[in-house]
Design a protein that fits this description.
Layout (H helix, E strand, L loop, with lengths): L1 H26 L14 E7 L5 E8 L5 E7 L15 E7 L5 E7 L5 E8 L5 E7 L11 E7 L5 E7 L6 E7 L5 E7 L1 H4 L16 E7 L5 E7 L5 E8 L5 E7 L14 E7 L5 E7 L5 E8 L5 E7 L14 E7 L5 E7 L5 E8 L5 E7 L14 E7 L5 E7 L5 E8 L5 E7 L14 E7 L1
Antiparallel strand pairs: 1-28, 2-3, 3-4, 4-5, 6-7, 7-8, 8-9, 10-11, 11-12, 12-13, 14-15, 15-16, 16-17, 18-19, 19-20, 20-21, 22-23, 23-24, 24-25, 26-27, 27-28
Length: 448
């Protein structure tokens, strides 16, 4: 009995201590952080390239979980090992989730070739879009749409040019539900003499028109359509709609022909087509100043969201923030605005991509010069900025990355494990940027 009596106080103390530490663990999860949860901090920042100008404009997550990036390079050294000239070529690199380079490949000739967008295809490969300047033929010296199909290892399967005399540039292309492809960009219809449209309309002359081309699975043209007015109209993004048609988006400077509701100098412009390329409707969004839409995405509730930048303080823009704001417009399948919102501070911001996530949010990739408003810091002349908004347009998370010089973000995606990966370009070698390899480097950073 004496042994049990002396042991009792110790036993009670142990019980109290165990309860205390158990409560401490439950009430203070910071003591044992969940490595899989999104923390909103930088995992890594990396640059790739050589001594020339290098940029990443688009990226996808490969079927094997690695990242495949498209851009262009003017370097022939450093990470670029299959190129001798200093002209611009399409440049594709594949990196691991940890940012380690797996392979690098270039595509192009002896003149300017710049990649704009990469998308995955059903055979496990990729479709590259951009523009190339032929050195011979009828269009020598002028850029044409250039589409390159590669396999999963980066080997070229086929390529096609589309264009006429004058400057014609592709900015987006993707595989369609019927196994073919769709390309969007702009056509110099004045230089083409009205060629480039197969529906028999009278030529609508301008220095640039939205130009959509539907291809079959081998890259052969099914139909071509251009839309616009007498001034500069350029499509930077497109998507396939639920009914098998297409939505082309970008910016319009015109106020005639296909543009029936111009708001000002430049407007966001949306063009809705059916699957045969026939025009269903067009819609302008903006104010009296310059508003340029760079990207579009499906929303999680069956509508659309377009992003870019605005310098307007009137019209559809109700909350101007600075000299130029990143601007998002959500609209339905008739072109009616559901909501619109500006993002940024008192300086210059511009959004370049929008990607929906599986949790109902949207990742918007942008650039920023502000250190106030929606921003909490500015590292230098211009920062690579990424922010995430909810279905109502409210900011859920934002982060700017950069150094003392010019840094831009072109696209961001959410990884299967809930992280954010952003690509762009950088001229810095300080701040968040660990190394500068040349004039301008490809920038890759990950937020965990």
């Amino acid at each position: 009995m004496l042994f049990k009596k002396n042991l009792l106080p110790i036993f009670l103390v142990l019980i109290v201590m165990s309860v205390f530490y158990a409560c401490d663990k439950d009430d203070n999860p910071v003591d044992e952080p969940d490595d899989t949860a999104f923390q909103g901090v930088i995992d890594y920042v990396k640059t790739f390239g050589g001594s020339g100008e290098d940029d990443a404009t688009s990226m996808v997550i490969a079927n094997d979980g690695n990242y495949v990036l498209l851009g262009y390079t003017e370097s022939n050294d450093g990470d670029i090992t299959d190129k001798t000239g200093t002209d611009a070529d399409f440049w594709v690199i594949k990196v691991t989730p940890a940012g380690e380079l797996l392979w690098s490949k270039t595509y192009g000739g002896v003149d300017t070739d710049k990649g704009s967008n990469i998308t995955k295809t059903s055979d496990g490969g990729y479709l590259l879009s951009g523009y190339s300047t032929p050195i011979d033929g009828d269009n020598a010296g002028f850029p044409d749409y250039w589409i390159v199909k590669i396999n999963s290892e980066g080997n070229q399967m086929w390529d096609k040019y589309y264009g006429f005399s004058g400057v014609d540039q592709a900015f987006d292309a993707f595989q369609t539900s019927d196994g073919g492809y769709f390309i969007t960009g702009f056509l110099d219809v004045t230089a083409s003499g009205g060629q480039g449209d197969d529906d028999g309309r009278n030529p609508q002359h301008g220095v640039g028109e939205f130009w959509g081309i539907k291809l079959d699975s081998n890259g052969n043209t099914v139909w071509r359509r251009y839309f616009g007015g007498t001034n500069n109209d350029r499509s930077y993004g497109a998507l396939e709609t639920a009914d098998g048609g297409f939505l082309m988006t970008g910016a319009s400077e015109s106020d005639d022909f296909d543009i029936t509701d111009s708001k000002g100098s430049y407007d966001y412009w949306a063009v809705r087509l059916n699957n045969a390329g026939d025009l269903l409707w067009t819609k302008s969004f903006g104010g009296s100043e310059i508003d340029i839409g760079y990207a579009v995405s499906h929303t999680n509730d069956g509508n659309y969201i377009m992003v870019g930048d605005t310098r307007s303080t009137d019209g559809d823009i109700t909350t101007p923030l600075g000299n130029a704001d990143a601007w998002a417009v959500k609209f339905n399948d008739t072109g009616a605005i559901i909501w619109q919102n500006t993002y940024g501070g008192n300086q210059f911001e511009s959004a370049r991509s929008v990607v929906s996530t599986n949790d109902g949010n949207y990742i918007i990739t942008a650039s920023s010069r502000s250190a106030n408003g929606d921003l909490t810091s500015n590292k230098g002349l211009n920062d690579a900025w990424v922010y995430m908004i909810n279905e109502q347009g409210g900011i859920e998370f934002q982060m700017s990355v950069g150094g003392s010089k010019l840094d831009f973000a072109n696209k961001g995606v959410k990884t299967p494990d809930g992280k954010i990966v952003v690509i762009g370009n950088s001229e810095s070698s300080d701040g968040d940027i660990p190394q500068n390899r040349g004039t301008k480097d490809l920038l890759l950073y990950k937020i965990k």
